[in-house]
Amino acid sequence: MSVLTARRGDMCYCPGCSHGMVLEQLGAAIDGLGLPPERVCIVSDIGCIGTADRYFSCHTFHGLHGRSITYAEGIKRARPEMLVVVLIGDGGCGIGTAHLIHAARRCADIKVIVCNNFNFGMTGGQHSATTPITALTTTTPNGAPDHPFDLCTTVGVNGAAYAARHSVFDDAMVENFHRALTCPGFVLVDVWELCTAYFVPANKLSRGSLEEYSTKLGLPFGVLRQGSPGDGAAEPVDAPRAAPKRERGAEWSAAPTLAWPGRREICVAGSAGQRIRSAVGVIGEIAVGCGLYAAQQDDFPITVRRGFSLSNLIVACTPIRYTSLDDADLVVVLSPDGLERLGSLAGLLPTSLVVAAEGIAVGDTPARVRVLPLKTVEKRVGKESAALAALTCALPAAGLADAGELRAAADALVGGSYRQTNLAAIAAGLELAAEAAPAAATGQ
Ligand code: SF4
Ligand SMILES: [Mg+2]
Description:
Number of domains: 2
Bound molecules: iron/sulfur cluster, magnesium ion
Structural class: alpha/beta
Radius of gyration: 28 Å
Distance between the termini: 71 Å
Low-confidence stretches: 237-253, 438-444
CATH superfamily of the largest domain: Thiamin diphosphate (ThDP)-binding fold, Pyr/PP domains
């Protein structure tokens, strides 16, 4: 069965539009690779060509204006075994130029197919970044004043492994796509097409005049860039990460777990220099590594090394659609700056827990309040790790995480150059939680 599920005539495009041709050619080229559908992902962008994902029986992802390139790179990084193909128009390429260039620079192993019909078709024929100079569009009624964006040269000089420009009427388009799809690294194919609704009637464009445009504009057809090993272009950035060492099933069964009671909201309020955001980030990453969902939002002034630093963390067992805090379940207050920014805690729920550094008067609150011996924590792990230790100490106290599970998950998941420091802080926080529940206090 073909990866393409519709024939040209059954697709949603205007009569004579080239998009259907491209999809048939691309579908045939993908079929020729013999990949199972679950090994292929089509990432679509905006515009008429953005509707194309519905016609493929493989993984598809519909993206936004010019951002399809970024989604595709993310998908490829997460699933390096997949063939990831971007279907984007000239409009999307103009909007997402920065993404295009930087994906090429990283030689991200994605294949970008540009359906280039020189205008924004879906929105009424406005000029785009690739509109040829003097061409007529609804927004350039006197002729486009600028030279068109040379997609192939741009990605080529920025590190693409492969760049080619073809007319959609090239008899060898299936072979052209096959060559492009099998080239490792960043690939771009600029396919020149006809938009029969707008660009064709305004410019009396035809199959033959695509060739004339190519000559007149100095933008030749053919393979214009093909990297070779060692020139810095042909090696995809993801190459060292290629095949995962373990089967996916084994990988998941070995993943640490963290029993979590559902959506829970945490706020840590302190000052610049206390590494508040890093502490929250470490716990958030542990949660994600355990298969939970996490969202972090930070708040700090534009000044550095002074003022408040707040970090909110939501951890949930299901996707987080709303990423702001409604009713914090746990508030950790580590400095007067942080408390001032946080404001009154009177709106907290009686079920909430406030863990406040000793000496900080949290004011009236219906929440339970506990005092944290922050100075002792700082002595034990150092000032820069105290926030992580304090947060780790508070999690079991708030009934959010089991200390043993948290320790095991941290051991398995915390990485980076601060691994040892962070593990020491987490261990200290859990020891503190185990030693004694922090002295009870009341809101003041
Ligand atoms: S508006 Fe242009 S690009 Fe869109 S479907 Fe019609 S002919 Fe094709
Ligand atoms: Mg277009």
